[in-house]
Amino acid sequence: MANEAMLETIGSITYIIVMMLYYAIYFGVTIFQYICLWKIFVKAGQEGWKCLIPVYNGIVLFKFIGLSPYLLFIYLLPFLLVFGIFIISFLLAMGAEVFYIIFFFMVIYFVVILGVYALNIVYMIYLGKAFNKSAAFIVGLVLIPIVFQAILAFDKTSVYRLKKEEKELTVENV
To answer: In this predicted structure, what is the pLDDT of residue 5?
Structure first.
């Protein structure tokens, strides 16, 4: 009996230590990402503080890499799918078949998540092209963004190439 209580205590303490370590690493990575984003903003001729404001940083970032800020609405679509739960409960109350409702909802959710991932890929491509990086570097930005954004931020040879008149990339130069 005493051994079980001691094992529970050790398990609880271990869990607390692991979770504290996890959140410390997560917090450190987040701070590092903001530092990298700050340096990228400064290289692009923006004030660094603009990267600290959550929605505004996306608007500024999309503008200086040549994307429309209205594309940021795609990131809101998964949150709108929460209303799907209410729609499902309404349809179930109306007597619709459960399988078809859930299948339809899952297909819509899958398409929305694919859209978000596609937007992230397009964002990384335009970010790489805005700093005149190679195709291999852009593949790295897509696959390991934290590493390649850090390289982009701290590399002295990375120079922002879009001028104020030339804010939009076209299909020809992408």
So the answer is: 72
Nearest to 118 by CA among 107, 126, 129, 128: 126
Determine the pLDDT at residue 153.
Answer: 94
Spatial neighbors of 130 by CB under 8 A, at least 6 apart, are 44, 64, 65, 66, 160, 161, 162, 169
Long-range contacts of 26-35 (CB under 8 A, 24+ apart): 29/146, 32/146, 32/150, 33/146, 33/149, 35/153
User: In sequence order, what are the residues at sequence separation of 6 or more whose Cβ sits closer than 8 angstroms to the Cβ of residue 62?
Assistant: 68, 69, 71, 72, 123
Length of the chain counted residue by residue:
174
pLDDT digits (tens, 9 = 90+) for 22-46: 999 999 999 999 999 999 999 999 9
Q: What is the SS3 assignment for 6?
A: helix
Q: Model pTM greater than 0.85?
A: no
Torsion of CA 126, 48, 148, 66, to 10 degrees: 0
Q: What is the pLDDT of residues 112-139, one digit of tens each?
A: 999 999 999 999 999 999 999 999 999 9
- CA–CA distances in Å: residue 71 to residues 22, 56, 85, 96, 171: 32, 13, 25, 35, 17
Question: Is the separation of the CB atoms in 132 and 65 below 8 Å?
Answer: no
